[in-house]
Amino acid sequence: MYRYGPATRTTERRSLAYDAHDRARRLAAKSALKYPPVQLTGVQARAVARGFADYLQGSSAIVRACAILPDHVHGVIANPGMLVEQMVIQLKSAATRQLEAEGIHPLTQFKQPEKRVPKCFTRGEWKVYLDPDDVTRAIQYVEDNPLKEGKKRQTWGFVRPL
What we know:
Strand content: 5-15%
CATH topology of the domain at 42-148: Alpha-Beta Plaits
CATH class of the domain at 42-148: Alpha Beta
Order of helices and strands: HHEEHH
CATH architecture of the domain at 42-148: 2-Layer Sandwich
Radius of gyration: 17 Å
Number of helices: 4
Helix content: 25-40%
Largest sheet: 2 strands, antiparallel
């Protein structure tokens, strides 16, 4: 994907989702993907949540909010007990195991003989470290995120509200 330009980095605290972007370049980059972009169904999103819940049972992390959308996940996590980057890897791994166990991994059709199913999560994460005063606002943002996409508010058993 490097030929389409470097990844965007920002130190902004506001959402950049509505900022202008080069649509043609974005579409060209998507067309160069090896596999189609993953769009989780509601059933798959629930499996991802079960994977998260399974992992979190043995973790010191406290999830204050979580939204699992068709093409991304938002979370507010306290006390991860490890680097945030490592926590994200663990959560993605648990979600992938659950999707495979339930036979609903979105890229199963691309599995090659003697190989694993292609990864359905991108490498890396976008993280923001919150000051105590920002936590309530971030929780509200995550809880409202499904509504912005015309979906219902989500409630997950592994989320522990403030």
